[in-house]
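Appendix B: a complete holo record

For completeness, this appendix reproduces one full record from the ligand-bound portion of the collection. The bound molecule is zinc ion. The inputs are the chain sequence and the ligand SMILES; the output is the full three-dimensional arrangement of the complex, encoded as structure tokens. No fields have been trimmed.
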Amino acid sequence: MTTLFLTHAACLEHDTPEGHPERADRLRAIHKALSAEQFAPLVRDESPRGALEHISLCHTDHHIVEMRHLSPSSGIVYVDGDTSMSPGTFEAALRGVGGSTRGVDAVMKGEAHNVFVSTRPPGHHAEITKPMGFCFFDNAAIAARYAQRQYGIGRAAVVDFDVHHGNGTQDIFWGDRSVMYCSTHQMPLFPGTGSAGERGEHDNIVNAPLASEDGSEKFREAFDTLILPQLERFSPELIVISAGFDAHYRDPLASLNLKAEDFAWVTKRLMEVADKTAGGRIVSVLEGGYDLQGLMESVAAHVGALMEA
Ligand SMILES: [Zn+2]
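The structure of the chain with zinc ion bound, as generated:
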């Protein structure tokens, strides 16, 4: 079966301040890693520009208008302490949204078994009404809602193994029983949300916080004992992955100490659930991952696993 890889050159044009960890070189590193011989079977395509009406499935119109309004014609403007916009940011963010919806189209139409969307800026910290933590629009959440609206999917899941908690995704689905959000993340760490007691209005949120230095064993245990059983019971018809690779031991922003093979492992476990309940359909979107070597190894492990479908 086919794994589709989506990206767009516009995502290199979201400029962040000198020394900022979320930088265009991240995508260049990923594309270099995926140029290796073993990834030749990937079907590669450009991420289209996402539609504003699809962003509004998860965000207020005010937020969307504000982002366009704040978009500078030159230089860089800050929208919070560590999140900024350059002239290319809005277009880059739209390509992330378009990658999500195009990815959903591909798996729903049977064009691909699964999809990896390599775009930036990331999305999972963007809340319903505001940008946050390098993020503007929540690509993973938009993928889930778009699948529901466009294809009549009843239950969708977003599984987030980025080392930070996806407060934005949790915010969007807090009162929505039709979407399960599951997350492993280091705690305490930015953004501060994601305790096990935060379960949503319908027990549809599964937070599995981990401690600094917890490593592979605790990470896998969290999936095996907490996330995967609840996910399987929920029986999603589509799994969206918020694929952040900043839990890798080399990453400068966290210290969860995972290895590349842990990302292959979790990907395969999620594929097993997807095979049982979702016809194998997985749309994986890039979130964090800030050490270039760690990112290359981790994405290669993740995409390599997806290709084994
Ligand atoms: Zn992160």
